[in-house]
Amino acid sequence: MASQFGISEAVMNEMSTVLQSHKTMDVLAQVEGMLDQMNSVTLNIAVTGESGSGKSAFINAFRGVDDDDPEAAETGITTTTLGAAAYPHPTAQRVLLWDLPGIGTASFNPETYLEDVGLLKYDFFIIVTADRFQEYHYALAKCIMQAQKKFYFIRNKVDRDLEANARRRSQKGLSDDDVLDQIRANCEKNLRMGQVENARVFLLSCFHPQGYDFPALQMTLLEELEGHKQHTLLLSLPNLSASLILQKKQALAGDVWKRAVAACLSSAVVGGNLCTVASKLMDTLKSYQQAFCVDKESLLRLASITHISFQELQSEVTSTFGKQLPTEEVEGIVSRTDPTYQLLVKKLDMRFPFLATVATGVITFVGSYFLLSSALNSLSEDGERVMKKVLHEAFAKQNIN
Length: 401
Fold this sequence. Notes:
2 domains; 6-stranded mixed sheet; 58% helix
């Protein structure tokens, strides 16, 4: 395991800024503070649109929750949202999607509407329609722009348009791509006519979250968020592309050394008990499983949405880290005196003498670091196998239909 990974000079330099103190409690507080700062960010996403546009279905699809799930936003063809309702992500409780009251009624006033729903608390707005964009969509977008907030237009239920086209294809001769191009062009034309310039339009079907523009929407939102909010959203997103999984892996890799130091020092505080190290690391492994959507709860939700059995999805999770590791096994990995560690251990002893004075020592830090690095590699591969399974099944069903 150790030969597969190294600790780069950039990571060494980052560690140097923290491991200057010789007081265990001070260093531990600083490292845990850095981790807590990232994990304490709240992201508020507002979803609005007229009644029947599929706002609630979009919220469920974005969160990776089936419409029949107890945690789902209520869906229906009539108005189901009378006030702003918050729906937390099932594994990232600080990511909140807000189902806002429907727009498009005779009494709708975009300026008072935004004030009523609490404009300033939202990070960005999703405006959903299942048909062409109307005057009230344009008015709402302009008010959001004046407040210097970002917004994104969603043209929902495009699967319905494709099904209608399929019934008359022999007459029109349009392909699915032609129909989608027409829908996008019409949406963009209507928005320009409504004086909403350079608006991005994403074509979606909440019944097929793996297809259409869902992956493009994910990447756009990530590109336009910054800092910890971007990180928070990234780890909550369902896996719809290999590039998204890679981004998750890279983002988590940047904090491996902090989690290894935190585990090592937490153990030292309570007397150098390896069980404490293992407990901290197992918590981190659980969060990694959730980030790559391969934990049991995520797979059960995915099975409900895709109608692929839980057993089939779970069979794609083949790594040791995709299972529940016993505490004793984690302890054994961390404390193993692998000969390939020795050069790195000596280097760290010289670079960070403080770590050498800690009861659990440099060996425990190195073991923790490589365990977490190995887990990231393995779990990202598990997540990609599960994703490919889902996409393969979706493609096969589409061809049958």
